[in-house]
Automatic annotation (TrEMBL):
<dbReference type="GO" id="GO:0002189">
    <property type="term" value="C:ribose phosphate diphosphokinase complex"/>
</dbReference>
<dbReference type="GO" id="GO:0004749">
    <property type="term" value="F:ribose phosphate diphosphokinase activity"/>
</dbReference>
<keyword id="KW-0963">Cytoplasm</keyword>
<protein>
    <recommendedName>
        <fullName>ribose-phosphate diphosphokinase</fullName>
        <ecNumber>2.7.6.1</ecNumber>
    </recommendedName>
</protein>
<dbReference type="GO" id="GO:0005524">
    <property type="term" value="F:ATP binding"/>
</dbReference>
<dbReference type="GO" id="GO:0006164">
    <property type="term" value="P:purine nucleotide biosynthetic process"/>
</dbReference>
<dbReference type="InterPro" id="IPR029057">
    <property type="entry name" value="PRTase-like"/>
</dbReference>
<keyword id="KW-0808">Transferase</keyword>
<dbReference type="InterPro" id="IPR029099">
    <property type="entry name" value="Pribosyltran_N"/>
</dbReference>
<keyword id="KW-0545">Nucleotide biosynthesis</keyword>
<feature type="domain" description="Ribose-phosphate pyrophosphokinase N-terminal">
    <location>
        <begin position="9"/>
        <end position="123"/>
    </location>
</feature>
<keyword id="KW-0067">ATP-binding</keyword>
<dbReference type="InterPro" id="IPR000842">
    <property type="entry name" value="PRib_PP_synth_CS"/>
</dbReference>
<dbReference type="InterPro" id="IPR000836">
    <property type="entry name" value="PRTase_dom"/>
</dbReference>
<dbReference type="GO" id="GO:0009156">
    <property type="term" value="P:ribonucleoside monophosphate biosynthetic process"/>
</dbReference>
<keyword id="KW-0479">Metal-binding</keyword>
<keyword id="KW-0547">Nucleotide-binding</keyword>
Length: 313
């Protein structure tokens, strides 16, 4: 290596080891070695088992709950900073706690902003993430943020299905921008669901804005948590005369009895990425890997090349 050229090194948080291995293999490198010591009370300490001095370090890990996942990322960023890494990039396939991106009632935190500050304080000099819950979260950072869109991997899959009478749907008003972007790329119609919640994860009422009669519908969303919205929307659309309903959701949180809801619903399939590892297998779930997307962007970032070709929407 020539003098002054920064070496790239890659490390994985424990919750994202499988995805990190795919990303690094696609990059053409190997994961660095980390040893994690754990105390009897649950406290843990990650340790880089190789020098990172003067290197560009990529630390790969989604920060979905539990909070240990976020804590592990923060500790590894701090360790890299204190080991004199030159550049430290936090690669967050899923940016957790992002639903708390504003004050929607008095006396509540803005967790997405807090997490951004914690990542920067810990040592991150750049963030790479995918399909944030709200685009404006990028503005919570003072460091560069590369916000990738999973549409670059989902659109080819939808096109490969060769669906006739295709209609793109948003499961709520907040996702209408995403739905319109997909519909523009696929030259299809758009419908939107309007929902009212009793409280978080509990839907009291849902209505459909648009006609799905005789249509093959594809719902698009950034995440699927309890699957309540998706399954309710799918059942409603089938009642309104849709031929079939599929769903595209970038981040498969799938908590509670989400898998049971999916199996009982009229959804034909749920297409997700591997940003979060699945808790169990399901015949209705199709996983499309985001590893190549992240590997390409990380390579371009390391070599100071444009990443604009990775943005479809």
């Amino acid at each position: 290596m020539q003098p002054g050229v920064t070496e790239a090194k890659f490390f994985a948080c424990s919750q994202s080891t499988e995805l990190a291995e795919k990303i690094v293999a696609a990059y053409g490198a190997k994961l660095g070695k980390i040893i994690t010591s754990t105390y009897s009370d649950g406290e843990f300490q990650p340790s880089f088992e190789e020098s990172v001095r003067g290197s560009r370090v990529f630390i790969i890990g989604s920060t979905h709950p539990s909070s240990d996942h976020l804590m592990e990322m923060l500790l590894m960023l701090d360790a890299a900073k204190r080991a004199s890494a030159r550049h430290i990039t936090a690669v967050l396939p899923y940016y957790g706690w992002a639903r708390q991106d504003r004050k929607d009632k008095p006396r509540v935190p803005i967790a997405a902003k807090l997490i951004a500050k914690m990542l920067e304080t810990a040592g991150a000099t750049r963030i790479i993430t995918m399909d944030l819950h709200a685009d404006q979260i990028q503005g919570f950072f003072e460091k560069p943020v590369d916000h990738l869109f999973a549409s670059t991997i989902f659109l080819p899959y939808v096109q490969s299905l060769n669906l006739t009478d295709l209609t793109i749907a948003s499961p709520d008003m907040g996702g209408s921008k995403r739905a319109y972007a997909y519909s523009k790329a696929l030259m299809s119609d758009v419908v939107i669901c309007y929902k009212q919640r009793e409280k978080a994860n509990i839907i009291s009422h849902m209505e459909l804005i648009g006609d799905v009669t005789g249509k093959n519908v594809v719902l698009v969303d950034d995440m699927v948590d309890t699957a309540g919205t998706l399954t309710k929307a799918a059942d409603l659309m089938m009642e309104r005369g849709a031929k079939s309903v599929r769903a595209i959701c970038t981040h498969p949180i799938l908590s509670g009895n989400a898998y049971e809801k999916l199996e009982k619903s009229k959804l034909e399939e749920l297409i997700v990425t591997d940003s979060i590892p699945l808790k169990q297998k399901s015949d209705k779930i199709r996983v499309v890997s985001c590893a190549n997307l992240f590997a390409d962007v990380m390579s371009r970032v390391h070599n100071n090349q444009s990443i604009s070709s990775n943005f479809i929407m």
